């Protein structure tokens, strides 16, 4: 059906994919399923899904490898499914570019809710002030027409969550956001997870946009409060 959001499920457990497919199709999503990593990556290129539901433990490639490969060329939202419940494992998944995670076992209704929430927050960018914003004489450029970010003229790849956080900070550069405020404005009120996720996203953002990680000029920490955006803007 035209207009349906396309969901790609990559999971080797047929019982799980059957249940997840049923729940998602009942919610009027178009669903494509693959049961190994190589076929999953091929389907990602062919199907061009709006969101990927990705198991971490697959028979050929790991979910982490697939996530990294997708993030080399795309900001398509990724929800990881994992039997690993340790906080460190979950934060590692988020650190390499996942937008959300669910631990097994999980409910089909909850997964549908997470899918809808992630799609909402990755589709509703803050209202742009300018089509192109440049900072420090072109050192950093944000193109709101095609959602591209460049550092010293070179295109950099951000995950959907990293991009949303950056835009939220840029929109109000003099405002200091707490972790909870950034979760609300950038990740959405439906987000369920650790507030430390923001720290992970901030760390990755800094690695991509800062020249000196010890003295960041764009993504600044306000000790005891949270984060704010700094840097001189040249409007385009």
């Amino acid at each position: 059906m035209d207009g349906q959001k396309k969901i790609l499920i990559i999971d080797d457990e047929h019982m799980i994919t059957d249940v997840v497919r049923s729940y998602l199709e009942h919610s009027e999503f178009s669903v494509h399923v693959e049961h190994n990593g190589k076929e999953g990556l091929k389907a990602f290129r062919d199907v061009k899904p709006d969101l990927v539901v990705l198991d971490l433990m697959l028979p050929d490639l790991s979910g982490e490898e697939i996530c990294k490969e997708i993030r080399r060329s795309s900001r398509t939202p990724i929800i990881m499914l994992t039997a690993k419940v340790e906080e460190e494992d979950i934060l590692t998944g988020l650190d390499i570019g996942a937008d959300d995670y669910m631990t097994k076992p999980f409910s089909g209704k909850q997964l549908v809710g997470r899918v809808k929430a992630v799609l909402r927050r990755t589709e509703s960018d803050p209202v742009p002030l300018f089509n192109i914003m440049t900072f420090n004489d072109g050192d950093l450029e944000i193109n709101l027409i095609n959602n591209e970010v460049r550092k010293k003229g070179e295109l950099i790849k951000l995950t959907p969550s990293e991009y949303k956080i950056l835009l939220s900070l840029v929109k109000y550069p003099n405002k200091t956001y707490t972790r909870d405020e950034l979760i609300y404005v950038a990740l959405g009120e439906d987000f369920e997870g650790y507030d430390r996720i923001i720290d992970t996203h901030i760390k990755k953002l800094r690695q991509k946009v800062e020249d000196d990680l010890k003295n960041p000029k764009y993504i600044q920490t306000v000790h005891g409060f949270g984060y704010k955006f700094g840097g001189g803007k040249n409007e385009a």
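Helices lie at 14-26, 37-47, 63-71, 87-95, 108-123, 160-171, 179-187, 197-209. The CA atoms of residues 32 and 232 lie 45 Å apart.
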